[in-house]
Amino acid sequence: MVKIAVIPGDGIGKEVMTEALKVLEYLQRDDSSLQIDTTIFPWSSDYYVQHGRMMPKDALTILKSYDAILFGAIGDARVPDDVTVWEFIMPIRKQFQQYVNFRPVKSLKGVASPLTNGKDIDMVIFRENTEGEYSNSGGHIYQHQPQEMAIQNTIMTRLGVEKIVQAACSYASQYGKSKITSATKSNAIIHAMKFWDEHTKNIVAQATPTLTLESIYIDALVAYFVERPQDFQVVVASNLFGDILSDLGSAIVGGLGLSPSANVNPEKEFPSMFEPVHGSAPDIAGKGIANPIAQIWSLALLLGHIGRPDAEKRVVRAIEAVLQEGAVKTADIGGQATTSQMGDAICQALVNKKHTARGV
Ligand code: NAI
Ligand code: MG
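Above: inputs. Below: predicted complex with magnesium ion.
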């Protein structure tokens, strides 16, 4: 039995998680070999308001006994965003060595991209997830005085850079990709980014001989994402650059409601965590109109990670079938369906797909 910890979180996190669990239930009802046990944890901003902390002191010890974590989103006006991020997401990502943040960016039939060149986009972003610009090294001193100052250090370790680039190279060779694109800014950030470039180059050189590396300055790269996104296959980036590139990646294929992500500890020493790229979307929370696809797709990535790529493909195919058919669409992609109608349509497509496959 595989044990999954489920943390819906705040805002639309709770709404989209309901749909992902519905999909999981449908799958399990239909496939008795999918033995998954879920436990729901209420850790969120509500929990913070009641207990003064985002999660209990022993939360990581509790989570460590699970095979994977399915997470929704956090963020609520009652709690400062840096508290929700640094007391919840960061400890899980860092302590569980989830150093790969894997974010697929794929154009989908039936979803209009705001870009007009009409070419297929199919890339994955490997974002370094435990160090880099998102470090808590630094300080803020001389508050309210003229000499007030803040320092925020970027931390790049050789092991950290090597491991994320190695993960990108292994993916490229496993899926027959020929090019790695590295996001850099070594012309201006001359210590950390030159270090990033040097070790990226070494690791790609040691990988498959057919793999080529292109290093592109981040400011140019964001423009190329818009002008010629079809040219990118596997993009490797530091924590901050990868974070920005993946929201941009979501936007060019139709929006945040469609984009899943995986925080992976490839060694499987700790549980990995699967979550949509989007946040808690307070502007639409409570209205029942959020698109649950990013969350359901994150569940699919989790299924692949726990050794069920067949179930992963089945869920992704069901999502693609619903989008291609186009009868059920949430507001973010130009329709009027509710969150739960979209979840139901995907459950239905799971069953239909299976019937089709049997019929053939
Ligand atoms: P956001 O991703 O929550 O929302 C950005 C925009 O995208 C909003 O207009 C929202 O309505 C729309 N959107 C997002 N997901 C959608 C979905 N599934 N369906 C339809 N529309 C969707 O980012 P924002 O507004 O910057 O942050 C809101 C809160 O979420 C903040 O408290 C922030 O700290 C938190 N956040 C949490 C994350 C996490 O839990 N991993 C990630 C990003 C933000
Ligand atoms: Mg982000």
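The domain at 1-100+267-360 is CATH 3.40.718.10 (Isopropylmalate Dehydrogenase).
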